[in-house]
Amino acid sequence: MLSRDELREHLVQSRIAGDVATPRENNLDHYSSLANGDPYYMLGLTFDQPWSYRDILALMAKSAGVVSDPSHRWGQDTIDPDLTIDAVDAMAERVAAVLSRPGPSVLFATGHPTGLLAIHLPLARLCAERGARLLTPGEGWTYSGSGFARPRQIRYLQGVAMLDDKGGFVHTHDAEPMRHMLSELDGELPDLVIADHGWAGAAGEAGASTVGFADSNDPGLFVGEAEGKIDVVVPLDDNVLPRYYAPVTERLVTLVSRALHV
Hints:
Blueprint: H1 4-14, E1 18-19, H2 24-35, H3 39-42, H4 53-63, E2 78-79, H5 81-99, E3 105-109, H6 117-129, E4 133-134, E5 142-143, E6 152-157, E7 160-165, E8 168-170, H7 176-183, E9 192-196, H8 197-205, E10 210-214, H9 219-226, E11 232-235, H10 246-261
Helix pairs in contact: 4-9, 5-10, 6-10, 7-8
Pfam families: Phosphatase
Protein name: Phosphatase
């Protein structure tokens, strides 16, 4: 496992954090859309209080490390690598706490099969090896969402749920698949959901203990965390080359394993 300093350097060099690829104007557009109540950016969550554009920007500066100056409207934006590492460590602590129980149930899902799947698969394998039941509700369920060229269905790969579009896993922010998955569990929520995008938001909204990953242009999960509906959100660029996530995954797996040996 890389030291904290080494991991920080890797995050910046790979642009998982530091100067990230997501442009400032995209971030601010999404913050404004969330403040205006656009369901797409709420990621399956509802909020207990109104969140203004300035509130969301301040939260994202605190939780993800984006530039706090509202006059900075174009060009480069950032994710603080130390906030990423802190959240990874908090996620590992939460996962270890759940795995310390006898036979916990864990549900994995990702809307970023070309990126974050590289973290989910090893973490799912670790959970299974430590005695967790990897839940697979809704497998094969098909639905048609807004803008879909054809129906999509839930498909699992080694215990991780994704959306399949005619043989290919696809990117999605949609919360509806997770809502359906949880409905099939007849009110028995998983002990832990590890997810992102609308998969995480819908789980947190339903009351499931949820940890997840979010980019700087996905403020909904950070608002959910601020309101206590999501336990931990790791800020990172969610679509770099999959191999770049290896040190993040190694830290998660190592810290969880160490905690379970105590």
